[in-house]
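Take a record.
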Amino acid sequence: MWVYSNLDKVELLHNGQSLGTKDVKKDSHVAWDVEYAPGSIEARGWKDGKQVMTTRRDTTGAAAKLVLRADRESLQADGEDVAMFAVEVQDANGRTVPITDNLVTFTVTGPAKLIGVGNGDPTDQSPDKGTSKKAFSGYCMALVQTEKTPGTITVEATCAGLSGAQATVSSKQVELRPHVSIWQRPIPKGAGITGLWTAVSDSATGFVASVLGTPRIFTLTEEGGKLTGTVEGPGGWFGGEDAPATIRDGVVDGDHVSFKSGINVFDGKIKGADLELERTVHIPFSMPTPPKKDPNAPVIGPAPDGTDPSFDMSDFSGAGKMTVTLRRSER
């Protein structure tokens, strides 16, 4: 049995019988060999010849109940404040049972939410974001965060076979600190295909998509057969993804739709709830024209047909015309 103390001497008693007094060295401890027997173990500390402190541990009975305590009585209703609710597993006489791993479940009612559980056991691999946690050495806890509405918060702890417990705290209205408002995408409202559309399928994949980009979000406004709006999505090698690209030359004629955006030309039809578009890309560069051949020069340089063997165009075999299917979205 080890006893840590900064007093002069410590006396150890087992079930009321003294096992002797020992001097305590600075920054050290004292120890006794004690044969186990149920009952009590008590340490008495001495300073300048007087007993000034005592501490005692008793053998506990079987786990019988839970005791739940909050670290404070009042919280701020700011959506950020957090309280810790500690659980003790106790026997019928109110003593914490040090050897138990009962599974404790937490329930929160009122303007708050359960954001985590814990027990201090470094070997416990169960998630800390659940609603239950096993006790470790008789203890576990729940972390509860307030909402922005004041009110009464009640936390209940339950465990199969044991008496449960609950604790109540209040959250009070406070002035909220300044914060950035949540951004919401503006969605145009109107007739025809006016609205927000997102790509649900696109034939451009892999290397082609990384080079030519993949338009994903289409904000469309139809008015009198004219189509305006923007297109968003990765721009590939040709940029443009840092800001929405403006739609140009947009036309809606019955079920036919066509428009341009960036290096893309879209043309297709309205089919039920979808827009089925054919996408053509106009790459803003061309292959260099080979120089005129000097009949006396050695055969080096570009191939006679002007192709460049250092640039493999086979990956772009399907890039001439790609299909994109759009569907309405609310965000």
Observations:
- The first helix runs from residue 206 to 212.
